[in-house]
Amino acid sequence: MARIAFERLAHAYPGVAARALKPMDMVWEDGGAYALLGPSGCGKTTLLNIVSGLLRPSEGRVLFDGLDVTGLSTERRNVAQVFQFPVVYDTMTVRENLAFPLRNRGVPAAATRARVEHVAGLLGLAARLDRRARNLGADEKQKVSLGRGLVREGVSAILFDEPLTVIDPHLKWELRSRLKELHRQVPVTMIYVTHDQTEALTFADRVVVMSEGEVVQVGTPEALFEHPAHTFVGHFIGSPGMNLLPCAVEGRRAVLPGGHRIALPRAYPALPGRVELGIRPEFAAVSREGGLPVTLRRVEDLGRRRIAWVELAGVPLAATLPEGAPVPAEPRLALDPARLHIYADGRLAAGEA
């Protein structure tokens, strides 16, 4: 296991003007479960490959437990990596595939057998240990690939690069649960790359949200949802994402589209650039009384909740329609004042309580 640190780490690919990774300083604690979350092209796989040693950064250093490993190979870093598509030997049995990394390292046969059977049990492969890998489905092959990454003990970190892409949707929850349980039993540092917020938020203790090569926020799933530090985080996490309204701020009041004024939980100085008010749909409710006058466009019934799509002076918003409440003829929008956030040029403004 290892504490992984980045010092002014950045990367640019040859011939490309824009950096794939913008300069960052960050620490991943020993034994933590981390997720790199962001859309395609945001730099998360580049960062993962730098950690694994498959790619050398053009700037900065990577430290494992204080040791500079920037120039070391993957093997010398002692990391295990699980890729997006299954990497298995079709002519070998499941047992032989799982044992392969251990045999290569000279682990005794008895210890290899015990470790293989333990990991196979965690992944639901115990009944298939003696089947040839070529006779398995894509989801089972990816389980074997996951198992080969997990079977080694004493690794510095285990890196997962979108490992559930080829897994059927109804099996993803099962595998995420198994990985989480494995991390509880063997608290090795795990880094999980994904563009799927559900995978990131259910797997990781801390999520690294990335956009255009920049780390915009690192935090627990709860912190990312309740206190987005950047409008990208508010938009990317949540379904629907955070509502953002252009506004002007006057101390403890915000002036919204249409000239509506609302109280804020904090006081703000004059803010530069583009100023926006953010609030999640979960904290905006449509009712018949109180709040701001809005125009109702449509209602989506999602089973456990209903989402009302409204407009405030032409600005579209998503809000919650309380369970069992009728759709009001003249809807009003109530915003929870404790859940309001103010952003200047996309970044959370602190304000004074």
From TrEMBL:
Domain of life according to the entry: Bacteria
The protein, known as: ABC transporter ATP-binding protein
Database matches in CDD domains: ABC_Carb_Solutes_like
Pfam families given in the database record: ABC_tran, OB_MalK
Matches recorded under InterPro entries: AAA+_ATPase, ABC_transporter-like_ATP-bd, ABC_transpr_FbpC, ABC_transpr_MalK/UgpC-like, Mo/tungstate-bd_C_term_dom, NA-bd_OB-fold, OB_MalK-like, P-loop_NTPase
Molecular function GO terms recorded: ATP binding
PROSITE patterns, A to Z: ABC_TRANSPORTER_2
Keywords: ATP-binding, Cell membrane, Membrane, Nucleotide-binding, Transport
Family the UniProt entry places it in: Belongs to the ABC transporter superfamily.
Domain ABC transporter: 4-237
Gene3D superfamilies assigned to the protein according to its UniProt record, in alphabetical order: 2.40.50.100, Nucleic acid-binding proteins, P-loop containing nucleotide triphosphate hydrolases
UniProt source species: Craurococcus roseus
